[in-house]
Design a protein that fits this description.
Rossmann fold; six-stranded parallel sheet; 11 strands; binds guanine
Length: 293
């Protein structure tokens, strides 16, 4: 069993980007600038956004946090997005999800300039990704691809079973794993809440990518010997003994499944840290494309 160490790899990526930024500064070039829009005070979103901003500082990017009240109108939020779209100092920005219920998420994501959409959530980027055109790939799927690449995990001709069809992880992951090239060239099965006899399908998988959000869902009897296991779950579970009052638990019953696997991502320290690293990578990409525009 080998651990796919997202903590280490994400640190490597951040160091690589920091080195590039140092060179940019030395040449007097503008450094990448990421903005994040946070609406309301959702605890998890606040943690994620703060950690995105902190990572920017660490690697020498400029960053801006746009904090807006939970009761902001859709119109005003659209106006804030337009400001970021037209502000030439900003290379890329994200709107942290979920948004409050009175706001139409699709309408907001459609308003983001695709050239600054470093989350890769705009239909233009999603479509380009599906058609193998240069685009921004959503950070979590991009992070999984990067892990498979850096650990040289064989994917060609393998049966990859994705659990969960979310727009942010499952759906894009299924597209990326079936693309030509490495990592890719896999035979993909995308499973979801209406899938019948999931266990029979996961048992046949060479690679399981679980993005379900149900703690300890995937058990040893659901996977075959030597499978590659990617756990995207990050559910907060109340734990009075944990320092913050909760623990982060993955979709995979790690203690059971790890001994059977050839490669596995731990939670925490697997896919999670990769997401921020890939967002930074996308922002660097946005900066260089912005330069060429
Ligand atoms: N909410 C959960 N994951 C994400 C993400 O990757 N980007 C944004 N903007 N919001 C999220």
């Amino acid at each position: 069993m080998n651990i796919l160490d997202g903590k280490k790899v994400s640190n490597d990526i951040k160091n690589e980007i920091a080195e590039i930024v140092t060179k940019m500064k030395a040449k007097g070039e503008k450094v990448p600038h990421l903005a994040a829009v946070l609406v309301g005070e959702n605890g998890a979103s606040l943690t994620y956004v703060n950690s995105k901003v902190k990572s920017c500082e660490r690697i020498g990017f400029d960053s801006t946090l746009v904090k807006l009240d939970a009761d902001i109108t859709e119109e005003k939020l659209l106006a804030e997005i337009e400001k970021l779209n037209t502000n030439d100092a900003i290379d890329g920005f994200i709107v942290q999800l979920p948004l409050p219920k009175h706001i139409d998420e699709q309408k907001i994501l459609l308003a983001v300039n695709p050239d600054k959409d470093v989350d890769g959530f705009h239909p233009t980027n999603f479509g380009k990704m599906a058609l193998d055109m240069p685009s921004f790939i959503p950070a979590t799927p991009f992070g999984i691809i990067e892990l498979l690449e850096r650990y040289k995990v064989e994917t060609s001709g393998k049966h990859c079973v994705v659990i969960g069809r979310s727009h942010i992880v499952g759906r894009p992951m299924s597209i990326l794993m079936s693309r030509k090239g490495f990592p890719g060239d896999a035979t993909v099965t995308l499973t979801h809440s209406r899938t019948q006899n999931l266990e029979a399908i996961t048992k046949e998988a060479d690679i399981v990518i679980s993005a379900l959000g149900v703690p300890n869902f995937l058990k040893a009897n659901m996977v075959k010997e030597g499978a590659v296991i990617i756990d995207v779950g990050i559910t907060r579970v109340t734990d009075s003994e944990a320092p913050r009052g909760y623990r982060i638990v993955g979709d995979v019953d790690y203690n059971e499944v790890a001994p059977k696997s050839s490669y596995i991502t731990p939670v925490p320290g697997g896919v999670g840290p990769m997401t921020i690293a890939m967002l930074l990578k996308n922002t660097l990409l946005a900066r260089s494309r912005h330069n060429q525009a």
